[in-house]
Design brief:
The structure is a single chain. The protein is an alpha+beta fold. The chain has a single domain (17-131, 143-151), classed as TATA-Binding Protein, CATH 3.30.310.70. Helices cover 41% and strands 24% of the residues. Helix 1 packs across helix 2 (33-46) and helix 2 (33-46) packs across helix 5 (131-151). The longest helix is centred in the last third of the chain and has 21 residues, at 131-151.
């Protein structure tokens, strides 16, 4: 019940897509990391997709920082969800077997120090001259944007 109430509260908060570089699509949301993270997870799973792995990026950087001589905290919280769509991935790899590098898809959720926003981002598929691959990559991007929009 708590998760349902948190989800309802989260849906009332504003979502905004930010201008981003060519390599990513970035959204920001007011709320807690845990609520946004859970909403993204529920959205991925709600589309019938299986999360293969959750990467704990913030924890990894905190754990390894001293070993590499770093002292700056990059993230307060930060995780990535890795997953694929059998349908879209097959379409993409049938169009170009080398497109395997685009799988798995990753959605990142993170917070940064001294910033009250939660960020959600994904890698933007690059350009191609192959029309079948372009359609598949467009489908990948539509899936990722849809997951984020549904969660927010």
């Amino acid at each position: 019940m708590k998760k349902i109430l948190a989800m309802c509260a989260l849906l009332c908060l504003p979502l905004s897509a930010l201008a981003s570089d060519d390599y990513m699509v970035l959204f920001k949301k007011q709320g807690t990391f845990q609520d946004v993270r859970d909403s993204i997870q529920f959205s991925i799973e709600g589309k019938g997709l299986k999360i293969n792995h959750t990467n704990k990026i913030a924890e990894m950087l905190a754990r390894t920082g001293t070993a590499v001589g770093a002292s700056r905290q990059v993230y307060v919280d930060g995780e990535q969800f890795e997953f694929c769509s059998a349908t879209i991935s097959r379409e993409m790899m049938e169009a170009d077997p080398h497109a395997m590098v685009m799988c798995p898809y990753i959605v990142s959720v993170y917070t940064i120090p001294d910033d009250k926003n939660v960020y959600v981002a994904y890698r933007k598929p690059g350009p191609t001259t192959n029309p079948k691959l372009q359609k598949a990559l467009s489908d990948v991007e539509n899936l990722l944007t849809g997951i984020i929009n549904d969660a927010m």
